[in-house]
């Protein structure tokens, strides 16, 4: 639970926010609808023999739905993709406006700050890099889904698809043809100037002065049917068929768009803002390790620390905080005479000392209090931590 | 679309102009002959901007006229399929409306007018939306998209549409500016 490996299942925090799943479903549907057969050829594809990499785009998008901002190296590692290959895919999605990316030169400290932020969201992956990146500045790329834009892009794409077919169906971009019902002579809109009559509002046949009929008026077209019309009719059938198929196949996507419409859009903000928020909220949750990189591997234990950007900070701690608490309790609280029982062990009617209940006077051990008293408001917990830190 | 191009033309000049102002006469005759004409290939010649070169004249047998090959630069206007133009409506009838963009005539047939606009006959025939908020009549200014051009040797005629986003009336002649 506390170490999230390559492809973590949605974190508890994600399920807690009832709409992030809907947004992610939208992304997954769109990925399968539009990017399933995308191949991204490298300039110097060394593994040309291995065939295409179709489907990779979908895998990458799926992986991004399970993350927020992620360092691209880390993503490549967990997807077991070559980082160049991944970068190509991400660049493609950046152009498609599904993904925002950020690049920055960073020292070890900057990298740690990100790691801490990741740890705080419970989505991170330990890369064990802290030691190596001491002096050098490296350019790191980060990426993140842009849900707001995805919503627009998907809708625009479907609009364009539909419009293209409909335009052809309505023969919007075709030149109107006219037929003389008397002598069956045909004219096109290019002849309009010569056909204008100054006595009435119709076009007139140059031959017999009959009133011309626009060919799209079905009756006329059928009466005057020519070989050329058959091909046109077949084409119309095909277009109609395509339009219908499209509507059928994209139905789930349309439904999902409708569902998602009323939800607020997940906004991660810029990389920096996100990081700042992540560590701030981690601190608020009593995870003092979040801004202390040397301990951040312990901070990882807070697998369920809620996502900072969604603004709900109280939901999941009880679930998965336990593990971390136990770890810490073991390592740090050996001095305590009576073990504090974890809250889930405490039931009504148990005969416990105050110490066992964790209701302890402050002088005793501030740390103990903070570890055990889950129900206390977070702010207070943090206060106690800082007292201890001094 | 407008282009700035170099063209060539053989000019015939009457011998009475041979004198100190021969060149001026050639240029003014060029302007008179060429500006405002249409060639199927290059479109409408809007204006001559300069004369690059006047070659050696050749006396025509029997007439005494001299032919000068003249190279000149000019601005031409040629409409293209897919191009967006602003045009002034010149005539409205049941079949659609005609409009002009400079020298170019454009016909917009009624099936390329938005479905919510209906033809109203009368003294001033027009296409109007059911709520009356938009009206196309003679002298209306419209933005349209060219969907077809017919280029003859001396004429370009276009078919346009206003059935698309951001096309249609750009002013209302009924309302004083
Ligand atoms: Zn006829």
TrEMBL record, chain A:
UniProt biased composition (Basic and acidic residues): 372-390
Region named Disordered: 284-309, 363-390
Keyword Transcription regulation recorded: yes
One cellular component (GO) term of this entry: transcription factor TFIIE complex
Taxonomic superkingdom: Eukaryota
Keyword Thylakoid among UniProt keywords: no
Domain HTH TFE/IIEalpha-type residues, every copy: 23-155
GO biological process: transcription initiation at RNA polymerase II promoter
Keywords: Transcription, Transcription regulation
Pfam families membership: TFIIE_alpha
Similarity-based family: Belongs to the TFIIE alpha subunit family.
The protein, known as: General transcription factor IIE subunit 1 isoform X3
From TrEMBL, chain B:
CDD domains for this protein: RNAP_II_Rpb7_N, S1_RNAPII_Rpb7
Domain RNA polymerase Rpb7-like N-terminal: 8-64
Pfam families for the chain: S1, SHS2_Rpb7-N
Gene Ontology MF annotations: single-stranded DNA binding; single-stranded RNA binding; translation initiation factor binding
GO cellular component: P-body; RNA polymerase II, core complex
Domain of life: Eukaryota
Domain S1 motif: 79-156
Keywords recorded for this protein, A-Z: DNA-directed RNA polymerase, Nucleus, Transcription
Predominant localisation class: nucleus
Location(s) in or outside the cell: Nucleus
GO biological-process terms attached to the record: positive regulation of nuclear-transcribed mRNA poly(A) tail shortening; positive regulation of translational initiation; transcription initiation at RNA polymerase II promoter
Keyword Nucleus on entry: yes
Annotated function: DNA-dependent RNA polymerase which catalyzes the transcription of DNA into RNA using the four ribonucleoside triphosphates as substrates.
Similarity-based family: Belongs to the eukaryotic RPB7/RPC8 RNA polymerase subunit family.
Protein name: DNA-directed RNA polymerase subunit
Organism: Iris pallida (Sweet iris)
């Amino acid at each position: 639970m506390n170490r999230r490996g390559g492809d973590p299942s949605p974190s508890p925090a994600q399920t807690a926010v009832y709409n992030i799943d809907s947004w992610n479903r939208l992304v997954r549907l769109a990925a399968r609808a539009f990017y399933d057969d995308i191949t991204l050829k490298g300039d110097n594809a060394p593994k040309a023999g291995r065939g295409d990499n179709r489907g990779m785009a979908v895998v990458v998008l799926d992986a991004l739905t399970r993350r927020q901002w992620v360092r691209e190296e880390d993503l490549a590692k967990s997807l077991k993709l070559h980082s160049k290959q991944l970068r190509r895919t991400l660049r493609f999605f950046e152009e498609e406006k599904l993904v925002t990316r950020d690049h920055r030169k960073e020292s070890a400290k900057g990298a740690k700050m990100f790691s801490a932020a990741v740890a705080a969201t419970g989505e991170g992956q330990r890369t064990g890099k802290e030691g190596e990146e001491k002096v050098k500045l490296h350019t790191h790329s980060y990426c993140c889904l842009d849900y707001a834009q995805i919503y627009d892009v998907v809708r625009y794409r479907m609009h364009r698809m539909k419009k293209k077919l409909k335009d052809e169906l309505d023969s919007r971009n075709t030149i109107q043809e006219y037929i003389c019902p008397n002598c069956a002579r045909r004219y096109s809109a290019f002849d309009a100037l010569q056909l204008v009559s100054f006595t009435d509002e119709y076009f007139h046949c140059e031959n017999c002065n009959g009133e011309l009929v626009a060919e799209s008026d079905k009756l006329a077209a059928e009466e005057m049917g020519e070989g050329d019309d058959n091909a046109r009719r077949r084409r119309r059938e095909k277009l109609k068929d395509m339009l219908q198929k499209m509507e059928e196949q994209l139905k789930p996507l349309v439904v999902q768009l409708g569902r998602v419409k009323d939800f607020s859009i997940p906004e991660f903000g810029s990389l920096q803002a996100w990081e700042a928020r992540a560590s701030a909220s981690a601190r608020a949750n009593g995870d003092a390790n979040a801004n202390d990189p040397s301990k951040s591997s312990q901070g990882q234990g807070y697998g369920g620390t809620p996502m900072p950007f969604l603004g709900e900070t109280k939901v999941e701690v009880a679930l998965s905080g336990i593990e971390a608490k136990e770890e810490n309790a073991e390592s740090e609280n050996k001095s305590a005479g009576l073990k504090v029982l974890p809250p889930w062990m405490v039931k009504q009617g148990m005969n416990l000392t105050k110490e066992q209940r964790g209701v302890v006077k402050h002088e005793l051990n501030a740390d103990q209090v903070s570890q055990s008293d889950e129900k206390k408001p977070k702010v207070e917990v943090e206060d106690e931590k800082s007292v201890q830190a001094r | 679309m407008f282009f700035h191009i170099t063209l060539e033309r053989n000019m015939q000049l009457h011998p009475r102009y041979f004198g100190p102002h021969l060149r001026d006469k050639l240029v003014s005759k060029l302007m008179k002959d060429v500006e405002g004409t249409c060639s199927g290939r290059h479109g409408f010649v809007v204006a001559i901007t300069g004369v690059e070169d006047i070659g050696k004249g050749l006396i025509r047998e029997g007439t005494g006229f001299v032919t000068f090959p003249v190279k000149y630069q000019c601005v031409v206007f040629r409409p293209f399929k897919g191009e967006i133009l602003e045009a002034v409506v010149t005539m409205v009838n049941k079949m659609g409306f005609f409009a002009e963009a400079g020298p170019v005539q454009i016909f917009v047939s009624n099936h390329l007018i938005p479905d919510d606009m209906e033809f109203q006959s009368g003294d001033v025939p027009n296409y109007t939306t059911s709520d009356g908020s938009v009206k196309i009549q003679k002298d209306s200014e419209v933005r349209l998209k060219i969907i077809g051009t017919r280029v003859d040797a001396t004429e370009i005629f276009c078919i346009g549409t206003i059935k698309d986003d951001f096309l249609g009336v750009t002013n209302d002649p009924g309302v004083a500016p």
